[in-house]
């Protein structure tokens, strides 16, 4: 794969804070147009890995490249944008002034109005940063990250403090960028966002990558899935014999709950030719915490 198509290349990266090892031999490649979610518990190494990829930290062992060059060089060329949790903002200037200042560094000052619209800030350009809400400040950080129209965008908990409408608009913009060949890497604690918007999930634990793949593949590491449905014809003993079923619970109103270790086999049998009364099916998969606990059990990592 050429540097033109591989936007991120991390090879055997190790990084320590004194005696604390934050990354332990991480290898990761990310290609053009991918939307990649970084998941993991606090202290797993997500922020350290992001900072290594941005050139803010230099690995003790291994190598990090963006577009086939050092991260610092890629950032200097305007190929990379970042929205980090610890980004500070000038307080006593207007939104338009601060976004325009950053846009000017990329020769895009004349496009400030368009950048404000993309970030949902068109009506807030004249407001001072000190008077913004938490969600509005988050949108300003996003505007600064996209001010140079980067080919690679790093986002750390990007939808924190955003309301539902703002989250929807944000992810619409992100997916449109990915459709234009931009690469998106975002760290989040929201498994539902990772499932809905990432085409690839990378899970870190103990400074190592313990899972890497599509959301469905990652979630399959948690074997137990709960199925809830209504079926007035069902009988408990019959449901208990379905393949994969571990537990059966019946509720008033012919509502049933099955816990299964093999979702596909159970559903195939549940919707078999002899069963026609199943309706209002809900599939409840494990939470992010369940995934992390299962992976920790598999790997022995904290």
From TrEMBL:
GO molecular function ontology, one term from the record: ATP binding
Sequence ranges assigned to domain ABC transporter in this UniProt record: 8-231
Record keywords, A-Z: Antibiotic resistance, ATP-binding, Nucleotide-binding, Transport
Compartment(s): Cell membrane
Membrane topology category: Peripheral membrane protein
GO biological process entries: response to antibiotic
Gene Ontology CC: plasma membrane
SMART domains the UniProt entry points to: AAA (SM00382)
Name of one Pfam family that matches: ABC_tran
Keyword ATP-binding: yes
Gene3D superfamilies noted in UniProt: P-loop containing nucleotide triphosphate hydrolases
Protein name: ATP-binding cassette domain-containing protein
Originating species: Microbispora catharanthi
Lineage: Bacteria, Bacillati, Actinomycetota, Actinomycetes, Streptosporangiales
